[in-house]
Specification:
The protein is built from ten helices and twelve strands. It is an alpha+beta fold. The protein has two domains: 132 residues, 2-Layer Sandwich (Beta-Lactamase); 135 residues, Histidine kinase-like ATPase, C-terminal domain (Heat Shock Protein 90, 2-Layer Sandwich). α1 packs antiparallel against α2, α8 packs parallel to α9 and α9 runs antiparallel to α10. The two termini are 78 Å apart.
Length: 363
C-alpha cells in the first residue's frame, strides 16, 4: 500500500495522532509493526495499522481496520498469555508478552508484543498503542538449543546406563577372577603342604620359602582387588602389611612405619611384591638371631622421578648386602628389580642397616 494511504488513515484519527503530529509520522514510517486500537468502540477494534504490521501479518489495511487483534490468534496460541493481555487491557495497564501468532496464510511467527494505554488530559484511555516484533528466529534458536540440550542429556543418560551396565559386568567378572585366583592359590598351598610332610628338613625349608612367596603374591592380589584404583599399587602400604605378618611369627619385633603416597604401576606389582618379600624374609631371619628383639622400620614416599621404599633393620650385628643373600633370593631380587625398572641398595646406619628399593617412574 502507498505511504499516502497511511497518511490519510492517520488523519482520520482524532486526538494527537492527526496530521502534522511528528509522532504519527514516526509510527507510519517505522519498520517496527505497530497498531492502534480504540477501546471506546465495541470489542476494542484496530483503528490504525502501519505498513510494517501489514507486511508482518499478511493482512491488508482493509482486512485489519475494525477487527480485534485476536485475528492473529490460532490453535497453538497460549491461552495463558492471551488472558494476561486481556486482564492488562481491562485494567488499563501496560503489558509485554511473547505470543505465537498466525499470519493470514496460516503460517506462524513469534510476536514480542507490547501494549500501552494512551490517555487524554483527564486520564481517560483514548487508545491502546501496540508494537510488535518478530522474534521467531530467537525462539527457534532457544527451542533448538533446548532440543539439543535434551538430546545431549538423553545421550548422557543412555551412555551412563551403558557404562553402569558395563561396570556391573566388569565387577562380576572381577569377583569371578578374584574367586578363581584365590582358589588356585589355596590349591597350590594345599599341594605344597602335602609335599612338605614327605620332605627332609633341608628341602622342607626351601618349600616353606616357596609357600611364603606364594602368600606374598596372594597379599599383592588381595590389595589390588580391594583398591579403589586397580591401575596403581601402593608399595609402601603393601610392605607395612607384609612386615606386620612377619612380626606375628617373631614375637617382640617392633614394626615402625612412615608411609606417604608411594604408588607403582600395577604391571610391576607382583615382581616388586616378591622383591619386598625376599628383603623382609632376610631381615626377619636375622632378627631371630638377636639376643633381644629389635625393630624393623618401613618408610615410603614418592618423588617426581621415582617411588622409594626403605626397610631399616635395627639391632642386628652384621650387615645384609647383595652378596650375603641366598642364591635363589639374590637371583630373584636381581631379575625382578630389573624387570620393574628398580634398584636395591644396602647401606649401614646407626644401630643397623637400611635397604632402599628405588622404582623409576614410567614414561
Amino acid at each position: 500500500m502507498e505511504q499516502q494511504d497511511d497518511w490519510r488513515l492517520t488523519e482520520a484519527l482524532p486526538h494527537q495522532l492527526g496530521r502534522g503530529d511528528p509522532f504519527a509520522a514516526a509510527v507510519r514510517a517505522t519498520r517496527m509493526p505497530m497498531i492502534v486500537t480504540d477501546p471506546a468502540q465495541d470489542d476494542n477494534p484496530i483503528v490504525f495499522a502501519n505498513a510494517a504490521f501489514q507486511r508482518l501479518t499478511g493482512y491488508s489495511r482493509e482486512e485489519l481496520i475494525g477487527r480485534n487483534c485476536r485475528i492473529l490468534q490460532g490453535p497453538k496460541t497460549s491461552r495463558e498469555s492471551v488472558n494476561k493481555v486481556r486482564a492488562a487491557v481491562m485494567a488499563g495497564d501496560d503489558v509485554s508478552v511473547d505470543l505465537l501468532n498466525y499470519r493470514k496464510d496460516g503460517s506462524t511467527f513469534w510476536n514480542a508484543l507490547y501494549i500501552s494505554p494512551v490517555r487524554d488530559e483527564d486520564g481517560t484511555i483514548r487508545y491502546f498503542f501496540a508494537s510488535q516484533m518478530d522474534i521467531t528466529s530467537r525462539i527457534d534458536a532457544h527451542s533448538r538449543i533446548a532440543r539439543q540440550k535434551d538430546e545431549v542429556e538423553q545421550e548422557v543418560r543412555r551412555r551412563t546406563a551403558d557404562l553402569e551396565a558395563a561396570l556391573e559386568a566388569q565387577t562380576l567378572l572381577l569377583h569371578e577372577v578374584d574367586h578363581r585366583v584365590k582358589n588356585n592359590m589355596t590349591m597350590i598351598g594345599s599341594i605344597l603342604r602335602l609335599q612338605l610332610r614327605e620332605m627332609n628338613p633341608e628341602g622342607a625349608g626351601q618349600l616353606r620359602a616357596t609357600m611364603q612367596r606364594i602368600d606374598a603374591l596372594g597379599t599383592v592380589h588381595r590389595r589390588l582387588y580391594q583398591s579403589e584404583d586397580v591401575t596403581r599399587f601402593d608399595i609402601g602400604a603393601f610392605a607395612a602389611t607384609l612386615a606386620s605378618d612377619f612380626a606375628q611369627a617373631s614375637p617382640g619385633v617392633r614394626i615402625l612405619t612412615d608411609l606417604r603416597r608411594a604408588e607403582v604401576s600395577v604391571g610391576h606389582a607382583s615382581a616388586l611384591g616378591l622383591v619386598v618379600n625376599e628383603l623382609l624374609t632376610l631381615m626377619f631371619q636375622r632378627q631371630k638371631d638377636l639376643p633381644a628383639p629389635g625393630e624393623v622400620r618401613v618408610s615410603a614416599h614418592g618423588t617426581p622421578a621415582a617411588t622409594v621404599l626403605m626397610l631399616e633393620d635395627r639391632g642386628s650385628r652384621s650387615l645384609l648386602d647383595s652378596d650375603s643373600t641366598g642364591p635363589l633370593s639374590r637371583s630373584l631380587i636381581q631379575r625382578l628389580t630389573a624387570q620393574a625398572n628398580a634398584t636395591v641398595t644396602f647401606d649401614p646406619i646407626e644401630g643397623g642397616q637400611r635397604v632402599t628399593l628405588t622404582i623409576g617412574r614410567e614414561e
